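Human: Cast an eye over this sequence-structure pair and say how the chain folds.
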Amino acid sequence: EYDGERNSEGERHGRGKAYLPNGDTYDGEYERGFRSGQGTYRFRNGACYIGEYLQNKKHGRGIFFYPDGSKYEGDWVNDQRHGYGEYTYANGDTYTGEWFNHNRHGQGTYVYKDTGSKYVGGWVNGNQEGEAELIHLNHRFKGKFLNGNPVGHGKYVFDIGCEQHGEYIQSEQVK
């Protein structure tokens, strides 16, 4: 069901509201039959996207509210979180930084709400990887990470002024 403007070919074009068979709704701009421009898409499951579209895909700037209470505000490309954005997780943690193909990728800051600790540095395909700093309330670790764990040379810096330099070595798992 569609209520809105159409072009001379009868395609949805301009502003309109659509009620989809699956229970979702879209209220926004259309171009030649496609969701294009600004719009609000409400999913039957409670999720909601408010932002830009290009040919039926989330593309440009937008905010997505997920059913679990989490939300993403930032750049979208071809229906994927891509570019720069902030994700607030259901538990209150936040990630602010670069995204690539729906994953945290590039440089970003992850803040752990419960402890106040934050990870500032590199990400690869959603995992903490590369040069980074893990900042806690009274000390911080500066070094390299791989799959979310410190690896190789690094140092702890304590607020009282002392430093501890060392190296992380992956222990062999005994089978």
Observations:
- DSSP finds no helices and 15 strands in the chain.
- The longest strand covers residues 149-158.
